[in-house]
Amino acid sequence: QVQLVESGGGLVQAGGSLRLSCAASGSIFSINTMAWYRQVPGKQRDLVADITRGGTTNYADSVKGRFTISRDGPKNTVYLQMNSLKPEDTAVYYCNANIRTTVFRTDDYWGQGTQVTVSS
Q1: Cα(28)–Cα(108) distance, rounded to whole angstroms?
Q2: What spatial distance separates the first Cα and last Cα of the chain, rounded to whole Å?
Q3: How far is CA 32 from CA 19, 44, 64, 111, in A?
Q4: What is the pLDDT of residues 84-95, one digit of tens each?
Q5: What angle do CA 68, 115, 90 make, to 5 degrees?
């Protein structure tokens, strides 16, 4: 069984910073791409950023230049450093990871979500 546990959300003023963390644990053979998504009520869950096993990153246009995704391989952890936060960044942020649990099986896993609220 695999678990993704997020931390680091909270309330911050516009222009401030937050750092989200997501640690994967359990029966893990290897981890491929790790990502952060966000969702506001009534809307679909959107990709914020992702990072491949080799370290290649990809960002939504709305966060480019402000957010940085990184990962610590040995710790099975992905981070999202969020700077210059805006009220429109307010959402529940979800961690996602594509994890190989056996030689023959790879699945997507999700964290429980962490609330980020940016006040104006």
Answers
A1: 12
A2: 41
A3: 22, 24, 22, 16
A4: 999 999 999 999
A5: 70
Position of tokens 């029966």?
27
Mean pLDDT of the chain: 97
The position carrying tokens 């957010």 is 67
pLDDT in tens, 56-74: 999 999 999 999 999 999 9
Classify burial at 74, counting beta carbons within 10 Å of its beta carbon; exposed 0-12, middle 13-18, buried 19 or more.
exposed
Q: How far apart are CA 103 and CA 38, in angstroms?
A: 30
d(CA 89, CA 83): 11
Amino acid occupying residue 88: E
C-alpha to C-alpha distance for 11 and 23, rounded to whole angstroms: 21
Q: What tokens were used for 52?
A: 């491949």
Q: Transcribe 12-25 into DSSP letters.
A: EETT--EEEEEEEE
Task: Map residue 89 onto helix, strand or coil.
Answer: helix
